[in-house]
Amino acid sequence: MHASHLGVLLSGLLVSAKSASASSILFSGGTIIAFDRATNSLDVIRNGSVLVTDDRITSVFAGSIPPSSVSIPSDVEEVDITNKILTPGFIDTHRHGWQTAYKTLGSNTSLVDYFNRFGEFPTAANYPFTPEEIYYSQLAGLYEALNAGVTTTLDHAHGTFSNATSSASFQASIDSGARVFWAYAFHELENYPLSEQFAHYRSIFTEAPHLNTPTTLGIAYDGFGPNPNQEIISTIISLTHETNASVLTTHSVQGPYGITNSPEDFAAQSLFTSIPPTTPIVFSHASFLSAVGAQLLRTYNHTISITPESEMHYGHTHPTSHLILDRASIGVDTHFTFSTDILTQTRMWLQSVRRLLYAEVLNRWQVPVNNPMSANQAFLLATRNGGLSLRREDLGIIAPGAKADLVIWDGGTGPNMWGWRDPVAAVVLHGNIGDVEGVVVDGRWKKRGGKLTDERFEDVKMKFAEVARRVQDRVVEAGVGLPGEGERFVVSGLEFGNSTVVDVQVGEGDGYGGLFL
Ligand SMILES: *[C@@H]1O[C@H](CO)[C@@H](O)[C@H](O)[C@H]1NC(C)=O
Ligand SMILES: *[C@@H]1O[C@H](CO)[C@@H](O)[C@H](O)[C@H]1NC(C)=O
Ligand SMILES: *[C@@H]1O[C@H](CO)[C@@H](O)[C@H](O)[C@H]1NC(C)=O
Ligand SMILES: *[C@@H]1O[C@H](CO)[C@@H](O)[C@H](O)[C@H]1NC(C)=O
Ligand SMILES: *[C@@H]1O[C@H](CO)[C@@H](O)[C@H](O)[C@H]1NC(C)=O
Ligand SMILES: *[C@@H]1O[C@H](CO)[C@@H](O)[C@H](O)[C@H]1NC(C)=O
Ligand SMILES: [Zn+2]
Q1: Which residues, by Cβ under 5 Å, contact ligand 7, an ion?
Q2: Are 131 and 424 a contacting pair, CB within 8 Å?
Q3: 164-214 pLDDT tens trace
Q4: Is the pLDDT of residue 9 over 50?
Q5: Of 256, 339, 493, 502, whose CA is between 20 and 30 Å from 164?
Q6: If you average pLDDT over residues 72-82, what whole number do you get?
């Protein structure tokens, strides 16, 4: 081998050996959207630096010369972020990672149709995923999240169809390197009794494959109301204590749906005071949350996850959610049907709240003069509020002591980001996933130079493509199953109604075309 080639090789090896042992990264010269705990607000530092040591942010300072109190390790990895924006990673507080393989099958689905075709129960009964299918579906879904700058996900993991699929979903979460609050969903399935689910959850906890990774173990359950089963619930409460569950989450969709799981249900069963104080409760959607429910959330310090796009796509809506933003964060939900990134969700939520509150003024025949919700508030919902939903003061912020979960936004290559002055507005209102140049979780690179760093990337891409094709064939074959004449919604017993279809086309037909499956 030619000597200079050897030299290149050797220096390559040295570089990689150095970065493998380096436990610190110094980002410098960029705009940092930091958080000031003293003033409880965002703090924009222009030409600032962030020092990461292992999994934590150890220092945040203006300029590139550290103050005398900060020592920079000699083997630090220096990353120049001049002209770029550094933000905390986004936090998604509601998602079902295993469903990635259903992508595009639900483009015009309704909640009723979803329950019949794509939910945990029809899937388990009619076309259960194999462990391999769950694994790649979950992993590909987490790649999607990481690629989009989402570093933390609360996964309501209801792909728990057997011990093997449950373990596969958990293992994929761990293998992704993302920060996953993986909430084992307990549900009544024909072929997988609850007793076995509980035993398996305990065995996962004991075996602890997630030890020393950013993934934690939590619980999901949707049977708190109406008609709760006391015995099951008391087992679940015991399990939260036994395993110090990192989160307890439930789907709450009230109104005509009647899938209550409401704060009132929790209060009626004294559940707020019987779970461990370290276990936060996240009520996903909280559609039709009442004033009393909101008060309970404030009293007991629990939160809701607003999933703006899903609540519009499916029709559970969110008529009161804007009134409880002090106890709210943002989630995605069934990302096989729509966008997977928290940035898009947050922007949709911001603009829909504005529309709603402007309408209140217009409806009194007045002309709105001020703007009801700020880009800053939207940014906080997507970041710090997610951390607070998970009772984690160290997530969703850039501040000393916080976890090193970071996103580098390319501040100017794309014309969409040219000319910004306010970096918060630039990200919230002008940014897109294409601007996410780098992602760090727990102090480790997950995306760099615009590409995911996972060495299994190509392999996962191929395996997932096969899995998605297989899974989709099964569902398409089974066909669409809208409810028949005279049927009622099973939970609330209410009648079904048709929405007005607005599709229209110049010429023949109404534009309500077929699905291109
Ligand atoms: C950033 O701060 C450093 C001092 O810490 C200074 O040398 C440098 O010129 C500054 N860069 C810009 C673009 O202002
Ligand atoms: C599932 O796991 C639990 C706990 O380890 C065990 O008791 C049960 O037998 C397992 N079920 C099967 C079918 O292997
Ligand atoms: C329970 O977990 C929380 C973090 O979720 C941690 O702060 C606490 O120390 C744990 N408690 C026990 C008893 O392990
Ligand atoms: C609620 O929980 C958050 C997150 O842990 C914490 O910052 C806050 O102080 C708590 N508030 C109350 C009133 O306990
Ligand atoms: C909704 O409209 C379809 C098509 O016109 C019809 O077949 C169905 O019975 C209607 N459903 C209800 C609940 O009215
Ligand atoms: C979605 O579109 C297909 C094809 O046009 C139709 O058969 C199906 O009923 C629609 N589903 C819903 C829930 O509207
Ligand atoms: Zn959901």
Answers
A1: 333
A2: no
A3: 999 999 999 999 999 999 999 999 999 999 999 999 999 999 999 999 999
A4: no
A5: 339
A6: 95
Structural domain includes residue 505: no
pLDDT band at residue 510 using 50, 70 and 90 as cut-offs: confident
Residues with CB under 6 A from ligand 6: 108-110, 113, 480, 482, 514-515
On whether both 351 and 404 belong to a single domain, the answer is no
pTM of the model: 0.94
Name the E strands within 371-443. 406-409, 436-441
Residue 453: CB atoms within 10 Å: 15
Domain boundary among the residues 429, 452, 475 is at 452
Matching residue, tokens 């002209």: 83
Residue 221 lies in a domain: yes
- Protein residue with its CA nearest to atom 2 in ligand 2: 200
- The answer to whether residues 233 and 358 belong to one domain is yes
- 407 and 357 fall within a common domain: no
Domain encompassing residue 404: 24-89+398-452
Nearest CA to ligand 5 atom 10: 498
Whether the Cβ atoms of residue 320 and residue 343 lie closer than 8 Å to each other:
no
- Scored b (16 or more CB within 10 A) or e, 231-249 reads ebbebbbebbeebebbbbb
pLDDT at 21: 46
* Ligand 7 center–CA 156 separation, angstroms: 7
pLDDT exceeds cutoff 60 at 18? no
Backbone angles phi, psi at 134, to 5 degrees: -65, -45
Residue 14 has pLDDT above 70, yes or no: no
Closest listed residue to residue 426, CA positions, set 438, 412, 440, 439: 412
Q: Which of 1-15, 43-57, 249-263, 459-473 has the lowest mean pLDDT?
A: 1-15
Helix (H, G, I), strand (E, B) or coil at 376: helix
Residue 318 lies in a domain: yes
Q: Categorize the per-residue pLDDT at 499 as very low, low, confident or very high, splitting at 50, 70 and 90.
A: very high
Domain for residue 11, yes or no?
Answer: no
d(CA 416, CA 245): 42
User: 3 pLDDT exceeds 80?
Assistant: no
Cβ-based neighbours of 429, under 8 Å, separated by 6 or more: 347, 375
Tokens matching residue 505: 């086309």
